[in-house]
Design brief:
Blueprint: H1 2-14, H2 27-40, H3 69-73, E1 81-83, H4 86-95, E2 99-104, H5 109-119, H6 122-131, E3 133-138, H7 143-157, E4 164-168, E5 174-178, H8 183-199, H9 201-219, H10 231-243, H11 260-273, H12 276-291, E6 305-306, E7 314-315, E8 318-319, H13 320-337, H14 340-356, E9 367-368, E10 371-373, E11 379-381, E12 386-387, H15 389-396, H16 398-408, E13 420-421, H17 430-440, E14 448-449, H18 454-470, H19 474-490, H20 498-515, H21 518-535, H22 568-583, H23 586-598, H24 607-617, E15 621-627, H25 634-642, E16 648-654, H26 657-665, E17 680-685, E18 688-689, H27 696-704
Parallel strand pairs: 1-3, 2-3, 15-16
Antiparallel strand pairs: 2-4, 4-5, 6-7, 8-9, 9-14, 10-11, 12-13, 15-17, 17-18
Length: 723
């Protein structure tokens, strides 16, 4: 009897309603949500047009109890939103309703559009509240939910994107999916789906079951295979060459994404084969992006993607992960080519992150919005980044302004509603750029999503650490240290994903090589052991996205596609190979081979996994520099800083206690000394070493030796299409 009463009480509590169109409000829940809204304080601005005479929101739903900026953007919609969890699905089962799942993120332009058109519309909200259980998900907080249902949407429609809109049964099975819908179309779809759900439940059940089975099959990679041969690297580079745009750089047509994993792979391929087309594709693409509107010419950093083939008209949001990876690609390209303009882009990009997207506590924020307030307060995509001739001349004066307008491609006609996207036509004096940036900083800025995502922070820690070492910038290394310490301190605060752990391990390894602090390597090793314990697939190899014991999804996914970001498995494979080289522990290498074998059949779609394969097919360098206590040995360090060495580990220590500390973690440094009181470099491959040297020229020659990708022949040249 007690159990029955408890169950009824729980159901009654679960079925409480906020004040929303079409629902009978529950006073206790309304009071709870009002209190949660009050706690937000005066700095919280409800994102709604439904306000009372005192400017207070008329509606507040359960999302006010969440911390995600994206969910809070929807907390005052008239839709009775739930966050993801068991409660909304249980209610859907009790009330025999379908579930409407809407997935997006806080800086997504079309997510904002759909909110204004549909989720703020009283008629749409009433229909949703009366006929569906509505769930809102932040894809950046729940990549597992996003990944599963995005796979379903792609199977149904052939493409995906955000906002993602799916209809589910109460047992979480999808039976319809799409992306953005205009208001009238969205309401029509909701009505049609509800009619089918009521009148033909057998059809809905069949579609849901078949689609769920396909999603579950897709979530698991093929059976492990043998490690691929070098040919897969050539075939992937050749495929990229065939899609290369010889006129504008990049690959394919509009919209164009930078996809740094492809550019990094081509740099590796060029190093191992000497193929000039591989390098040309990278250099041309980097030049075109740095000159286009996708690059913030005033403030540094990259927007998410270009809506045209010329890299001119971007989608204006800035994502932390894009800028982290692109900073590394430009850094590597500067090492390969020696070009100072590529190094400048690295500095400007990292400076923009330090200025605009760094939390005072040390971590990095996730994104800035595509939209920003226009002159009347309305949200306009890209407004804060675009200019008119009059605005430039108001800052620089008529004569100077006209010159700068030509250099930045600013015209009366403009590119977006009479406003011009700044691009690089010719060089602009630095003081003029700074004046314009200062003037822009006084505009109402785009909103910042202040989530600190360990995955993306790990990528950015790598960027700051590697640039700090290669460019000799202590402030970049310091930023990486602060971020790493913050994220490490909070990694266990909530459930995390494979990508979070793998990227942070990568960042810590890079931080070790940049700061020469063995604590960072010890932290990386410990964190990888946690990753192994929580995510490893002991039966088939590789790692799951979600930890052991985390339930509530149709499948436990093992993503096998490197797109705008690399998968956690690709990152982990290379981490394992680096740890094997640094520690001499063979089990790391064997585990890396397990991961690569698990994804052997999927590798052509995983450029970052191919980077790990490239390492395994190479003879990685073990570079050790030992300094005497009274000398810094900058000549040798300068050589190492400028060298492009993707398949190498770097260990730098000073004789005495520092050398002893390193030796306890990195056996390959044991027995090394600064010979004849001079900074000494040791370069080895698979425990076979060149002669120790203190001569920078000889050291450079040792580093430049490259193992060819193919031992017995040269691969066919990559195709070079004409513009």
């Amino acid at each position: 009897m007690i159990i029955v009463l408890a169950a009824l009480l729980a159901a009654a509590q679960a079925d409480e309603n906020p004040a929303a169109p079409g629902l009978d409000p529950s006073p206790a829940l309304v009071q709870k949500l009002a209190a949660a809204l009050a706690v937000k304080g005066p700095d919280f601005h409800p994102n709604t047009r439904h306000l009372d005479g005192r400017g207070r929101p008329l509606f507040t739903n359960r999302l006010i109890l969440e911390t995600s900026p994206y969910l809070l953007q929807h907390a005052n919609n008239p839709v009775s939103w739930y966050a993801w969890g068991d409660e909304p699905f249980a209610r859907a089962a009790r009330e025999h309703k379908p579930v409407l799942l809407s997935v997006g993120y806080s800086t997504c332009h079309w997510c904002h559009v759909m909110e204004r058109e549909s989720f703020e519309d009283l008629e749409v909200a009433r229909y949703l509240n009366e006929n569906y259980i509505a769930i809102k998900v932040d894809r950046e907080e729940r990549p597992d939910v996003d990944g599963i249902y995005m796979a379903a949407v792609e199977m149904l429609t052939g493409n995906g994107g955000w906002p993602m809109t799916t209809a589910l049964t109460p047992d979480r099975q999808p039976f319809f999916g799409g992306t953005y819908f205009p208001r009238e179309r969205f309401l029509d779809v909701l009505q049609q789906l509800r009619r089918v759900y009521d009148k033909d439940p057998a059809r809905v059940a069949t579609v849901a079951k078949e689609l769920s089975h396909a999603v579950q099959e897709n979530a698991q990679p093929a059976q492990p295979g043998k490690l691929p041969r070098p040919e897969v690297l050539h075939e992937t580079a050749e495929r990229l060459a065939r899609s290369y745009d010889p006129l504008h750089g990049g690959f394919g047509g509009a919209p164009k994404f930078p996809t740094p994993v492809n550019l990094e792979l081509l740099l590796r391929y060029h190093r191992r084969t000497g193929d000039p087309q591989a390098l040309k594709m990278v250099v041309h693409t980097l030049e075109a992006m740095a000159a286009g509107g996708i690059y913030d010419q005033l403030g540094g950093g990259f927007h998410r993607y270009s809506t045209d083939v010329q890299w001119l008209k971007p989608h204006f949001e800035k994502m932390l992960y894009d800028n982290a990876q692109l900073a590394i690609v430009y850094l590597e390209a500067s090492q390969v080519t020696g070009r100072a303009d590529f190094a400048r882009v690295v500095r400007e990009t990292l400076d923009s992150i330090a200025r605009d997207m760094t939390d005072p506590r040390g971590g990095f924020w996730s994104a800035s919005d595509a939209d920003s307030p226009g002159p009347d307060g309305e949200e306009i995509e890209g407004y804060s980044f675009t200019w008119t001739p009059g605005e430039i001349e108001a800052v620089l004066g008529k004569k100077r302004g006209v010159l700068v307008e030509g250099s930045y491609g600013v015209s009366e006609r403009g590119d977006l509603d009479g406003r011009s996207i700044v691009r690089h036509v010719s060089d602009v004096p630095e003081d003029a750029r700074k004046q314009l940036l200062s003037a822009r900083s006084k505009r109402a800025p785009a909103a910042i999503d202040r989530k600190i995502i360990p995955f993306w922070n790990g990528l950015m820690i790598s960027a700051f650490a590697r640039a700090g070492f290669a460019l000799g910038e202590p402030r970049y290394r310091a930023a990486a240290v602060r971020a790493a310490e913050f994220v490490l301190a909070h990694i266990a605060d909530k459930d995390r994903f494979l990508d979070d752990y793998a990227a942070l391990v990568q960042g810590l390894i890079d931080l070790y090589e940049a700061t020469h602090d063995p604590r960072r390597l010890s932290e990386a090793i410990a964190l990888h052991r946690t990753l192994d314990a929580r995510f490893r697939d002991a039966a088939a190899g590789g790692y799951f996205l979600t930890p052991e014991g985390k339930h509530g999804l149709l499948a436990r996914e093992k993503p096998a596609y490197d797109g705008v970001v690399p998968t956690g498995n690709s990152i982990a494979a290379l981490n394992l190979l680096r740890l094997a080289e640094l520690t001499g522990e063979e089990h790391f290498r064997k585990r890396a081979e397990e991961v690569m074998a698990a994804f052997a059949s999927r590798m052509p779609a995983m450029p970052a996994m191919l980077a790990a394969l490239d390492w395994s097919l190479d003879q990685p360098l073990e570079v050790v520099i030992v300094r005497p206590r009274d000398r810094c040995g900058m000549e040798l360090l300068d050589v190492l800083q400028h060298a492009y060495l993707p398949d190498a580990v770097r260990v730098i220590a000073t004789e005495g206690p520092d050398l002893e500390k390193h030796g306890r973690v990195v056996p390959l440094i044991q027995g090394r000394r600064a010979q004849r009181g001079k900074t000494t470099a040791y370069v080895c491959r698979k425990n076979v070493c060149d002669l120790p040297t203190s001569d920078p020229a000889i050291f450079a020659q040792q580093l430049a030796k490259t193992e060819p990708l193919f031992k017995d022949h040269s691969p066919a040249p990559l195709p070079a299409p004409k513009p």
